[in-house]
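User:
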Amino acid sequence: MGLIFLALSVPASLLLAAILTPTDPVLASDVQLDDPEREDKLKDKIRFSLTAEAGLNDGLAFPFTYLAVLVVQAGSFAAFNFGNWFWNTLLLKIAIGILVGILIGRFIGYILTHLKKWKGIQTYDGFLALSLTFAVYGISELVHGYGFMAVFFAGLSLRYSENVSGKYKKKMHDFNHEIERLLIVVWIILFGGTIMNGILDITDWKGILFSAAFVLILRPLAGMIALAGIKDSLKNKLAISFLGIRGVGSVFYLSWAFMQTDLFENKYELYSIAAYIILFSIILHGITAPSIINYFKKNPKKHKLGDF
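Assistant: Predicted structure:
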């Protein structure tokens, strides 16, 4: 669609596809997993799926953003070293990120459990959630892994660690929730500033039409295709496919790619298209997400929310 409808180059089309992958974990906080104690009482398949998607997409978008950068730097697919990208940039960096995240998550869980026994030190501070994020990201990047992937698996490992008390998990969750609320305010203000500065005026009607089609048609369709082999109700699949909220992740990857090289054409048009998609997503999903989640809360048995 980028090649034919938007008349973009192959590298620019690859980049657009890659940066539209991430589901924003901050803007999508209302449709993600609740605190651990409440989660144990009502396992919500939709929240679980959207949380997993938001965490994994941030890491999985990076190798394909790399792909677009490497292709435009090579000048053509013929000159592009696909083997190096596949084995190194895709598989190796993802594997390292996952391994680092799991190991550090389990190590922190072990320390939290035994530090009080060994030294009488009780470190039940919600700030650990934020400091752990930065530490895991930095360590993973240092050892040639994807930081976002490592952070997701570290959080997953720590969240489901049986050694860490449920009250402390709830404390970390509540701290993260407050930070997310603060980031929502900051992000919306900054995003509104870019709109006032005319970022939406750069693309033409084709970019606007593509943005609307992406949010309303392409994302839900891709979600339904991905869930085709899953035994679940149609309404569950439709909800999961529809609630793919876009946000700062797309802007981050787009900015990162442009920092690596100046060879991309239609740079500002890509920013404009991404801004339209984020704007449409914020409005549409912001209005509909609470009603959709509340509907499934009221009908847990009907839609098998506890059936994994």
